[in-house]
Amino acid sequence: MTTEFKKVAAIRGMNDVLPDASHLWESLEAHLRHWLAQYGYLNMRSPILEHTRLFTRGIGEVTDIVEKEMYTFVDSLNGDSLTMRPEFTAGLVRASIEHNLLYDRPRRIYSMGPVFRHERPQRGRYRQFHQLDVEALGFAGPDVDAEMILMTARLWRELGIEDMQLELNSLGQLSERQAHRAALIAHLEKHRDVLDETASGAYTPTRCASWTPKTRPCRRWPTPRPSCSIF
Q1: CA–CA separation, 135 vs 42, rounded Å?
Q2: Is residue 130 within 8 Å of residue 112, measured between CB atoms?
Q3: How much is the CA Rg of the chain, to the nearest whole Å?
Q4: Is the dihedral angle over the CA atoms 47, 136, 22, 18 positive or is it negative?
Q5: In 40-146, where do the E strands start and end?
Q6: Strand stretches in the chain, DSSP E
Q7: Over the stretch 87-137, which tens digit does the pLDDT of each residue have?
Q8: What's the pTM?
């Protein structure tokens, strides 16, 4: 009796790092750790698996990440819905709250490692890829944002990366955001008759989630989320 064995390969979009390349990863990671330590950032490691509701709350239920790109499954032991982290921020903030890290002072923390997106692999887009996440938690005002911009510019110079262009985006002042929100809601109310039944109830005064005109493909209104992450 002959048994045929089929060769097992890595999952498409999840790549091996072989010894010939691993030393380059280690060198870059060591450089990043030294760079962050000079600015007072401490390493923090959160689990790869988290409760799914952490990401639906933190990222937003109507984002492409949550709707299409998360590796989510039901734990057979207790029926919990679990998700492989698609990004770092939600888990780091969860851990900071759970362990009361900000009780005495703000914190500068960072994490690096694999994150996962359940999408079709293509050039430059993988199902498992790596991120460096930098978080300044509990700081008021824009100073820490300026600090991160300067930090990043220094890192690019140290790594010899050229032809970089800095582009800044702002959500505006509170009064400007309120005016934009009011105008957006008024626009959707004006065109309610071209929305289908699902979309007509999909937005609220606090979040214009999504809408689907009857005569054209679905468009999504983004929900901006402040972030202090450097990827």
Answers
A1: 10
A2: yes
A3: 22
A4: positive
A5: 42-43, 49-51, 71-74, 81-84, 107-116, 128-137
A6: 42-43, 49-51, 71-74, 81-84, 107-116, 128-137, 210-211, 219-220
A7: 999 999 999 999 999 999 999 999 999 999 887 777 778 899 999 999 999
A8: 0.71
Q: Which secondary-structure segment (H or E) carries 4? A: none
Q: Give the pLDDT confidence of 5-40 residue by residue, as tens digits.
A: 788 999 889 999 999 999 999 999 999 999 999 999
Phi, psi of 55 (to 5 degrees): -80, -35
Tokens 């999408």 label which residue?
119
- The residues with which 125 forms a beta bridge, in sequence order, are 122
Angle between helices 143-159 and 19-37 (to 10 degrees): 140
Pair 215, 194: CB distance under 8 Å: yes
- The alpha carbon of residue 123 and the mean position of all alpha carbons in its chain are separated, in whole angstroms, by 20
Length of the chain: 231
Amino acid sitting at position 40: G
In whole angstroms, give the CA distance from residue 86 to residue 90.
9
Residue 148 host element (H or E): helix 143-159
Domains and CATH numbers, the chain: 19-159 (3.30.930.10)
Convert the pLDDT of each residue in 140-197 to its tens digit: 878 998 999 999 999 999 999 888 888 888 778 889 989 998 998 898 888 888 876 6
